[in-house]
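<goal> How does this chain fold?
<body> The protein record starts here
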Amino acid sequence: MMLLDLSTWWSGMGTFEQVYWIIALPSTLIFLILLVLTFVGGDLDDAGGPDADVAGDDGVGFQFFSLKNVVGFFTLFAWSGLACIDADQSQLVTLVVSIISGFVMMTVMASIFYFMSKLTDSGTLDMRNAVNGIGEVYLPIKKQRGGFGKVQINVQGGLRTLQAMTDDGEDLPMGTVVQVQDIINDQILLVTKSSN
C-alpha cells in the first residue's frame, strides 16, 4: 500500500519537480553523512581540502569548491527549488532562486571553514616571542658567550627550558633572574641579568 502511495505521489508531479526531488534526496543524505562524520572526527573531504591543510599546518585558504561545499550547494539548491515549486512560482523564478540559494550556501560554508582555520594554532615555538621576557637561569651560563646554559622562561603560555648565552661580564649562576635581549641563530636566547 505504501509503495502504491509513493508511486502515485511520484507520477502526480511534473518532470521539473521530479528533477528537484532526484537532486534533493541523495544530496541531503550525503550532506547528513558528512555532517555526522565532521562531528565524530571522520572526514571524506577532498585530499587537498581544508582539513588536510590544517593537519599539515599550512592553514586554509578560502576554498569555494570542495566536496562539502558542492554537496551543500545541491542540498540547498534542491530544497529551495522545491519550496518555490510548492509556492507555485514559475520555473524561471524557481531556477534563479535555487541557484542563488545554492551559491549562498557554498559561500557560507567556505567562509566558515576559512575563519575556523584562522582559530588554529600550530603549536610551534616561535623564539621571537621570548624577547624581553623574564626567566630564571636553570643551568649556569658562562660570561661573554663562553658557553651555553639553560633558562626557564614562560613562552607562548608554557614554561620552557631553553638554551641561553650572555654577553655579561660575569657568569650567571643558577637561580639568577634574567631578561631575554635577543635570539642567536633562531635557537639560542641571549640573556642579561635582570635589573628588577
In short: The first helix runs from residue 2 to 11.
